[in-house]
Structure formats: C-alpha cells, structure tokens
Amino acid sequence: MTVPGLSRDDMARRAAQDIPDGSYVNLGIGLPTLVANFVPEGREVIYHSENGILGVGPAPAPGQGDPELINAGKEPVTLLPGGAYFHHTDSFMIMRGGHLDISVLGAFQVGANGDLANWATDDEHFPPAVGGAMDLAVGARRILVLTTHTTSRGEPKLLERCTYPLTAAGVVDRIYTDLAVLDVTPGGLLVRELVDGLTRDGLQQLTGARLRFAEDLRVLAPASSG
Amino acid sequence: MLDKRVPTLAAAVDGVRDGATVLVGGFGNSGVPVELTHALLEQGAKDLTVVTNNAGSGDTDVAALLRERRVRKIICSYPRSKGSIWFEELYRARDIELELVPQGTLSERMRCAGAGLGGFFTPAGADSLLAEGKEVRMIGSRRHVFEGPLRGDVALIKADRADRWGNLTYHSAARNFGPTMAAAADLTVVQVRQFVELGELDPEVVVTPGVFVDRVVRVEPGGGR
To answer: Which residue of chain A has the CA closest to B32?
Structure first.
C-alpha cells in the first residue's frame, strides 16, 4: 500500500501555520529547520540558535556571508536587523529558562505520554549525540515535534512508550507527521488532522499507540490552519 | 606593567602538561582556535582530556589531536558531526573515553567553575540515562539532576581583538563558548585577529574582561593553517 503522505516541505509548511506572530522560536536540526521557509507572510518570528544568536535570517547567497555565522546545524545563516549575539551560557539560559515560546524538534520516537527520544538509538557503533536537545525539551514553553510517521523501514515512531533512551519525559505538546497532526493529551494521542486518502484504521496500523480521533477531525493539508 | 601578549603560538601553549584538561572553544567550525590547537599538537602534550562541543571534523584542530592519539577522554555534547572521522574511528575501537553532556549543562558546569560555585540542579537530562549515578531531586514538580563544576587546566579560545590587559571582543557567532571557558581555566590562552592599544576597545563592547585572560597571541587571518 502506498500511503499518500505529505512531502518534507509540506510537513514544514503545515507546522509553520501554528507559529504565531511575535514568537521566539528555536528550530531543531534537519527537518525542523525547514519550518522557517514557510511561516505565513505578515508574521514576524524571531529565531534563536543555540550557539548564541537571536534574529537568525536566511542563508546568505553562495560565496557571500560570514563563515563564523552558522546555525545549530552548522549551516551558514545571516543576522536580521535587530538580531543579537550572546555567549553560550546566556543562550542556554534562554532555552532552559522558559524564554522561548516554541521549540520544533525532530524525533526518533515519541510516547503517547509526551516522552521524547531523539538523541540515542540502540546501535553501539553510532555514537550518541545530545547537543542542545535536552535543554530545549525541558525549557521551551511549547514543544512541537516534526517527524515522519514511521521510520524508513516502516516501523512506527509514535509508541505507547519510547523504547530508545529518553531525551525528556512528558514534554511534547503536538506532533506533525507526513500523515497526521496529533495532540498529546492526558488520554493519549488525539488525532486532529488526517491526510486525505488514509483511513482511521490505516493510520492506527502505522502507529504504535492507541489513537483517539477528534470530533472535528480535519483533513491534513499543508496550509490548513491549526 | 601588565602585558598578556605573547609573541608566538609556541609561547602561548608553553607549559601545558601531559594529562591536562583542555577547554577548546568553538561550535562546529565557528570560533575554533585552530592555530592554538595546532600549536598544542606541536608542543606535544598527551593523555589530554579535551572539553569541547563537537569532536572536531576533517583533519584540523581537535580532530588533529585525536588523530595523533593525544586525547584520552573527550567531554562534549555532540560528537556526531559530518566529517568527525577521527573521533568515530577511536570510538568504535574503544580507544577514547566519551563523557556526553547536554550542551547547556556543559556550558553551565564551566560557568560554575569560573564563578566559584559547587554545581547546580538542572532539569535537562534529569529523565535520561545521563542522570544515572547522579543525585536527582524534585524541585517544584520537576526532576532535577545535580551537576558539578567543570574546570580546565587550560582554555584555548578564539576572539577577535585584544589589548595588552587581555580585554576581548569577539566576531559574530564565534563568541559561543569563549567567555565561559575564559573564566573556567587556570591558564586561559586566546588567539586574536588583532591587537589594539589600551583604551581603544570601547568599554561598552568588551565581552570578556581581561581578568579572565592570561595570554593573548595574534594570528593572521588565514595564516598558520
């Protein structure tokens, strides 16, 4: 069965709809970084990068730019007017101290209880790397996870409980996948939006946790509002 | 007269002993004291514990120290970077000890050392394997793990400008760990792009006051690589 999932850009586009005007936001490495490309016109969002930047702007033109000015993914970026530099300890005060409105993170696994696993797998040959994920996960006011619904081998990433080592317990608020938008609630995962062409049973089969569906379940479309 | 300027990279890293704990600034390729790490390689100190955010990439700076087997242990947050081949080789061969620390905890542990504090409780990592064997306490409704100070025998830092008192300014995001590491080591060594006369740095823009700095050495941009 071919599942009609959203592209990576459309996943990022959908998550970007839920970033309010005036937010301070940290975007994780990889897929979450794409969210900045799709924030709707007219919203001013201030991006934080863990290496000491507020007001991160888009990538410079090729060959232009400042080689020392990079984002958390070590990619070249620019600084917007009004942006600021600060040192690492201050940067993590911003993260841990609850000063960021939103953090968008990637995930290896998410638990139905909001547990997040995104730093280590059970592969011994693959050195673990935590970076700023644990500080962000406990510190940002709202944690959004952006991830494919299953691994490249088709295994579910949304589980009753994570099997990989935890990044933080009970921190995830909302999950955006290529197939659905789900809220973490005291009663487990609640599906808010489901991609067109996939049944509720079909989504359940691709998920390792029992799903509930919102009464006003909507179609997941890249630009639908949250 | 107080003059922290030294004439050569060799003089800058003189006296670093075998077994030293060395704090190395930088995040990815930003703010890395490349020339100072190469001077340390030439100087020959071994059995080092290196504290740095990434484990080096390619063949330069920390990666060169790894390649030459000078590092016994690395304390870092994110060793898995594109091109971190030397770390990965040593890790797979179990030829290096890795202490993985959440990035904010790494920075705050060094801040504590520089600030004369005995440690702190943080929620970061408190629910994770990284809290194993450490004191965990409920503060409010949240688990916090105790983390102790992390001090260096030496810090190697890259800044932009310095005067002879060791006052420093930095360039854009190259600042990263520099100010924290400068305060956290017994011997703080800084490479800068430019020396300026005393009084030339606007006191409003000095980021690291010279009290935290022991030696400064000038490195020509693009030189020494």
So the answer is: A68
Query: Is the predicted pLDDT of residue A224 greater than 80, yes or no?
Result: no
Contact B173 A51 (CB under 8 A): yes
Amino acid identity for residue B1 in this structure: M
* Domain with A132 in it: 8-37+101-220
Q: Judge whether A74 is closer than 8 Å to chain B, CB to CB.
A: yes
Residue B23, amino acid: L
Write down the pTM of the prediction: 0.95
Q: What is Dmax (Cα atoms) for chain B?
A: 55
In CATH, what is the architecture of B18-117+151-198+205-217?
A: 3-Layer(aba) Sandwich (3.40)
Nearest C-alpha neighbor of B50 from the set B15, B77, B21, B27 = B21
The tokens describing A210, both together, are 């029992």
Residues in chain B: 225
Is A158 within a domain?
Answer: yes
The string of pLDDT tens digits covering residues B98-133 is 999 999 999 999 999 999 999 999 999 999 999 999
pLDDT at A99: 98
Residue in B53, B74, B78, B86 to test binding to A, most A beta-carbons within 10 Å: B78
Q: Is the pLDDT of residue B215 over 70?
A: yes
Is pLDDT above 70 for B28? Answer: yes
- Where exactly are the structural domains of chain B? 18-117+151-198+205-217
Interface check for A30 against chain B (CB to CB < 8 A): the answer is no
User: Domain tally for chain A?
Assistant: 1
pLDDT of residue A225: 47
The amino acid present at B38, given as its one-letter code, is H
| CA dist., res. A58 & res. A61, Å (int) | 9
